[in-house]
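SAMPLE LOG
Freezer: B-3
Tube label: C17
Construct: single chain, 504 aa
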Amino acid sequence: MRLSRLIKIVRVVFGYGLDEFLLGHARVRGLGKLIQFLLSGRDLSAPRAERLRLALQELGPIFVKFGQVLSTRRDLMPLDIADELAKLQDNVPPFAAETAVAVIETSLGRKLDELFAEFEQTPVASASVAQVHKARLHNGQQVAVKVLRPDILPVIESDLALMRIMAVLLEKLSADGKRLRPREVVAEFDRYLHDELDLMREAANASQLRRNFLNSNQLLVPEVFYDFCAREVFVMEWMDGIPVGRIDELLAAGMDLKKLSRFGVEIFFTQVFRDGFFHADMHPGNILVATDNRYIALDFGIIGTLSDSDKQYLAINFLAFFTRDYHRVATAHIESGWVPKETRVEELEAAVRTVCEPIFNKPLSQISFGQVLLRLFETSRRFNVEIQPQLVLLQKTLLNIEGLGRQLDPELDLWQTAMPFLERWMTDQIGWRGMLRNLKKEAPQWAALLPVLPRKLGELLDQNHTELLMAGYSGLMWEQKKRNWLLGVIAALLAGLLLTWWLK
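STRUCTURE (predicted):
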């Protein structure tokens, strides 16, 4: 099976002229010319990016999904290829309803009529990894039932093995092979695809996002019914709404498009900066609009997470970019450790200015946040910085949000919407509220650590290791300083409270 699959891949690669990607290295340039001569009858009039997209579509759903993942790696892919691959859509025939029922009953250990009062045999959606059926529970609750494709794992493993071979060839035979890091990209796709095969992971993502936006007036997230979930089956609340890409239907339903466009931006920044947990696949196919003008999120297979340092890095860079403080952008890169410490700040500052200054000759309403972040990544690459995967996901999601927002409201000024949010977040993190929150968070750890420090120091003394002794002494002094600082802050706060009470 793998041999026949390999033969088909070779036929498609040469049929669409993709050998130009593989045979760009100087050592095989002669072979490339020979192939061009032998296959001179090929029609290669279409742009290379379009030919690549058509080839992936012909190779089937796993390669289509790989192309979708590649389209998010704009830090590696040329823009023409990334833009073309973003057009790839899952177009996979559904598998038989009898097969779906068998998967459900085997996974949940009960007969279908015990699980559901009604189950629609015809799926409402079908993709490369799973398909969705509409059903109704015995309590009357309408639900969406997502069912994993049976026997999908062997197909995935076979195609991944061939992708690894192609990645090695690309790295060795292409002029850009090493820069594109094809083996790392395939490994990333491997992890992503295997994560998607566990629908319990998607259920957990949906639950977390729902908890984050419970009672929100901007976003609805369906409830997950864990009694009906397993690795191969995911059951959640059925959501009715208008697909966000159907502008005419939204207008006919009386939706406020300007409010929707603003909501999209605010939801994105709330997920990123408040929660550090964001829906990273927010293309129009995964978003509906409810009758009350709220968004409905669907499909939670791809989620991005950000640490506190990631969030601080992003906020500082966004604010510095839009005030044209390129020196602060450069120092933020060095402070974060993403750029070698020996990098000259002035050199990085000049590089950032050269790339970004032309962008700001436009009105703010025409500036793309996503493009600014992309330019930042391009500049970082010149200084041998490997961009973190979570920030690549963020940049891709930001481009989706921008495109969606400006489709709803062409006059959307993303910066006007985002600036107050970023300023509030920075104030909350750096101001007195942030200090009190950090004190509250760290106080229990200090309370538990301080009483045992003498015993820990005694153990170090008994070991008679000079290095350990010095480390313990330094740790003790550091904890003493922190305790003194904490006591000082508490004393200042108490003094302030007493003064306020006395002045009353």
